Input
Amino acid sequence: MTFAIITDIHSNLESLKKSLKIIESNKNINKIICLGDCFSLGPEPEATLELLKSIKNCTFIRGNHDRYLIEKIWKDEVPSMEGMDPNDPICKAIIQNEKWTNDKIGDEGISFCKKMKVSHTEIIDKTFIDFTHAWYKRDDKPPSIPEALSWRDSIIENNPEIEQVALVHGHVHVPRHQVVENLTILCQGATGLPFDRDKRGSVAFLTVKENKIFWDIKRFDYNSKITKKRLSDRKPPFYKNLKRTIKFASIRNDL
Output
């Protein structure tokens, strides 16, 4: 069983297009998994929505930014997110970006987000795999190793035939590959907005064969000049910061 994984697209249409071409060139894919954060922040939410709708055999997981759109957090009395200071100009700009994105994707986009799953589980032979944005308990912070080990124990207790457990998440925008005993935690980074100082996008392939886990991350170049130009042309809130983040592949909140 082989899964192709995309995550944290953030309306980077050019990177999404390239990732799907790479997936299409692999003829052994059984299912595509999108781990969320599809629309907010980037310049092309409408076109991203249309392209995602066209993907066949794809399971969509809801990210925290997808949830912000559903909740319309900009309508809160004191809007904030992920523990940020609501008076921080960066926080205010990101929240305004959420509203801008909502206005662009409209009811159709919000309906798309509402249909996303919180997590998706696959059991292949004696391997249990959970796909989430961050974790099934929360979408804004992946589990620590002690939390993940406790979760693994509960999975095996309830499913005695399971011999190994894997968690595949997004959200952090940097690669993660940790193996502790029979627990594996994987993150490819980000398809559209990497934070690991590598400007290339990513698509991952997870294969389970003979109860072994094979993890392959494909990094790829895409035309980031188009993405940055679209940010300049459309000027969504927070766009100057986003241009710097794309340029340096790290969180850049400096203007």
About this structure: The mean pLDDT is 96. The CA atoms of residues 172 and 199 lie 15 Å apart.
